[in-house]
Amino acid sequence: MPFVRLLLALFVLLAALPGRAAPTPAPQAPALKPLTVYFFDVGQGDAALIVSPTGKTVLIDGGPPEADDTLVPRVRQLVQGPLDLVILSHPHLDHLGSLAKVIQAVGARRYMDPGFDHPSESYRKLLDVVGQKVGQVMTPSPNPSAPETLRTIGLGEGVTLTLLSPRAPRDAFLTHTRSDVNANSVVAKLTYGKTAFLFVGDAEPETEEYLLEKPIDFTSTVLKVAHHGGRYSSTAPFLAAVKPQAAVISCGAGNDYGHPTDEALERLGAVGARIFRTDLQGEVVAVSNGATVTLTPRKGRSTPTTVNGQVTGPVAKGPMPTGGSRAAPVSQVVPAKGTSAGRTATVPAVATSGTRYVSLKGSKVFHREDCGTLKRAKTQERTVYTDRATAVRERRPAEDCDP
Length: 403
What we know:
It contains twelve helices and 22 strands. It has helices at about 1-15, 70-80, 95, 100-105, 120-135, 180-185, 205-210, 235-240, 260-270, 280, 370-375, 390-395, and strands spanning about 35-40, 50, 55-60, 85, 110, 135-140, 150-155, 160-165, 185-190, 195-200, 220-225, 245-250, 275, 285-290, 290-295, 305-310, 330-335, 345, 355-360, 365-370, 380-385, 395. The protein is globular and about 60 Å long.
C-alpha cells in the first residue's frame, strides 16, 4: 500500500508541473453532410435525381414512357414532398417520357427546359401538366441584370448547380447541327467542395466545341456521358477539359442503337475514367462528402468505387463572350442613310403584310401561319396573333420557320 500511495503522489506532482499537462486533442472539423446523386436505370433513356445535404431535390430528365412503373415509385421513395426543381435537358421522348407522371405523383415547385421548341405531342402533353402542376417555369438563360454571368442555383451547404448552356437569347441557339434538339441540351455542373458532377444531356460535338470557347472550368469528378455513349459526343478535346475520374452511361440493355459505342468507350478510357453503365450495373448511386465521391452500382460490380475530388477553381473564370450560333444572319440589300443606295446591311427579316402568327396550346413559341409544324400538330387549341409585335410580347419565335 505505501508503494501505491507513492506512485499516486508522484503522478499528481508530475501533472502539476508546468508544461507536463496532457495535450488537448485538436477539435475535429465537422463532417460535411452528403450530397447524393441517383443515376436511375430507366432503360434506353436518362434520369438522375440530386439530393443535396439540406434535402433539396432536383430531377434531371425522366426516361422513356416505359420507365413509368419503376421511376415513379423510386422517386416517391426518395423524395418527401414536391421536387424543388425538374430539368428537362431537351424535349426528346427518351428523356421526357415519364416526367409528366412523376410530376403528377410527387409535384414540383419549378420546371426548366432549354426553351428550344420541338413539335412532338408528348412534349405538348408534358407542358400541359407543367402548366397545371408547377408553380414556376424557367429556362437556363442568364439573369437579364447580369447577362455575362452564368445562372447558378444554390442547393444549400455550399452546393451549387451552374447552368452552362444554352444561354439564349444572350447566345443564339446552335443550329445546322446533326440534331439541333440534342445540341441545345441543358448542360449543368453540380459542385460540392472539391467534387463536381457534369450533366450534358444529349449534347452534340458542336455543343462541346461551343462550350470550350467559354472561360469555364469543366473539371468534374463524375461525368454523365452524353447521348448514352453515342459515337459523336464525348469528343477527345472535351474530355481533356472535363478530366472525369468516373463516367456514368445511361442506356438500355441490348438497345437498337449500339450504345455505348466502342468509339466513346475508347475515348473515355483514354482519359482514365472509370465507367459505370446502367445496362450492365443498374442504378448507380454516387455520394459526395465534398472531398471524394463513392459510386455504388446496384448490380454487377457491387463493390463501391471511391474517386477523389478535383475542382480547382470557379466554374466561370471571366465574362462570358457572346456568340455560338451556326445560323447565318439574314442579309438584304437596302439603301443606307448617308451613303449610296445598294450598300449591304444586316437587317432583321420583315414579315409581309397580312402575315399571321400562331402558337399552340402550352407552347412557349410562335410560328408563321404557314409553318409545317402547325400542319403536323394534332393540337387544335391555338392562339392567333395578327401582328408580330404582339406575338413577341407573349412568346418567342420558333426556330423551324423563323417568324
